[in-house]
Amino acid sequence: MRHAIDKLFSNIVDRKNADPSVSYTAKLLDGGTNVIAQKVGEEAVETIIEAVSGSQDSLIHESADLLYHLMVLWADADINLQSIWDELDRRSGRSGIQEKANRL
Amino acid sequence: MRHAIDKLFSNIVDRKNADPSVSYTAKLLDGGTNVIAQKVGEEAVETIIEAVSGSQDSLIHESADLLYHLMVLWADADINLQSIWDELDRRSGRSGIQEKANRL
Amino acid sequence: MRHAIDKLFSNIVDRKNADPSVSYTAKLLDGGTNVIAQKVGEEAVETIIEAVSGSQDSLIHESADLLYHLMVLWADADINLQSIWDELDRRSGRSGIQEKANRL
Amino acid sequence: MRHAIDKLFSNIVDRKNADPSVSYTAKLLDGGTNVIAQKVGEEAVETIIEAVSGSQDSLIHESADLLYHLMVLWADADINLQSIWDELDRRSGRSGIQEKANRL
Asked: Three-state DSSP class for B49?
């Protein structure tokens, strides 16, 4: 079974050819990199505010919004999703001491 | 096989009991919500700047940093990872028209 | 003659008692700290994007938007404007070496 | 007497020719637009976090840090400070109804 995050990314990529008047994702992609980056920034700020002063539920909701817009940014940049997961695997593989040396 | 993002989150949660002087993740978790939220904001800004004026490689790298710190924020808030994936599934399930009505 | 930034702050403070259905400033103040902070974040992101990839004119425009919303945040927190200027004066007074020691 | 904010901006512009190993401002300017924009983003995030969950004193301190780094961004872009104040004057001049129409 496919992971939810891989499935959502596929849906986003599929929307590249959708009608911007019907699909919000297509509209975002049509708006260009600066517009999408602006949305990522807005959702990051909302996530931060909810983390610092909101509830767990609102943090989950804003985090999902942030992930969604971040993936639209990846689709806009033609990023291969596997390259992100490979990068996360490198972080998982680090021992505590390497982790510190790499600040991760 | 476990997904890279689930594996990294498990590693982050495991570090909750690690020594902050050895593990960067433990140090972040020890610093508290505001410190972690600040880092999420910094990585979001770096991601935005790379998207707008950088290379695909640097966007991948900064995106992975953002995801990692976002997951530390989730670990700090005791979020069940499945609740994030359920939220993403709801977004995947929306048709184009529902998508527009929900602004997603 | 009063400085433009002091004059705008006075106008913002005056709007605390204005009708939120007529005054955008009153509506913001009525929305509360989290809403205003969110707007400061959005304008900061726009300023960053214009600085990195836009024109001088758009940077001026977004910077003014950021200043305006930052001042609404100060009004919301009942900050005495002079305390901000005193803080800037402390930064001006630092010599190069003190500047470095203070990271400013 | 000169306003604190005009004085600080003059000091920042003067540092354009200073030694980056002695002056933090010169070092920032030497680092280039993306580095300065990144700092503006970091200080904006700190300001937001303090507004939402901190004290008035820490909000004043972070706001001054944000203003300082924003002015370094203006110096980097060779912005004439008066053009910012003219923009603020335009916002001050708007009546409540114009304000709403202009979303300011």
From this structure: helix
Q: Residue by residue, what is the 3-state secondary structure of chain D?
A: CCCHHHHHHHHHHHHHHCCCCCCHHHHHHHHCHHHHHHHHHHHHHHHHHHHHHCCHHHHHHHHHHHHHHHHHHHHHCCCCHHHHHHHHHHHHHCCHHHHHHCCC
Tell me what pLDDT residue C99 has. Answer: 56
Identity of the amino acid at C14:
D
Closest CB to B88 among A4, A89, A103: A4
C19 by DSSP, 3-state: which? Answer: coil
> Apex CA B74: angle with CA D35 and CA A40, to 5°?
45
**Average predicted confidence (pLDDT) for chain A:** 91
User: Is C60 within 8 Å of chain D by CB?
Assistant: yes
Task: Kindly report the pTM of this predicted structure.
Answer: 0.92
pLDDT at B102: 53
- The answer to whether A81 and A74 are in contact (CB under 8 A) is yes
Best of D63, D81, D104 to disrupt the C interface (most C CBs within 10 Å) is D63
pLDDT attached to residue D26 = 96
Residue D51 contacts A, CB cutoff 8 Å: no
CA D39 to chain C, closest CA, distance in angstroms equals 10
pLDDT given at position A92: 85
Tell me, what's the ipTM? 0.91
- The 3-state DSSP class for residue A80 equals coil
- CA distance linking residue B94 with residue B21, whole number of Å: 45
Structure-token match 């994702």, residue found: A25
Give residue-wise pLDDT tens across range C8-22. Answer: 999 999 999 899 999
Contact (CB, 8 A) for B41 and A45: yes
Which residue is associated with the tokens 């004193």? D57
DSSP B7-48: HHHHHHHHGGGS-TTT-HHHHHHHH-HHHHHHHHHHHHHHHH
B13 touching A (Cβ < 8 Å)? no
Instruction: Determine contact, residues B35/B25, Cβ cutoff 8 Å.
Output: no
Two tokens, residue D48? 């937001």
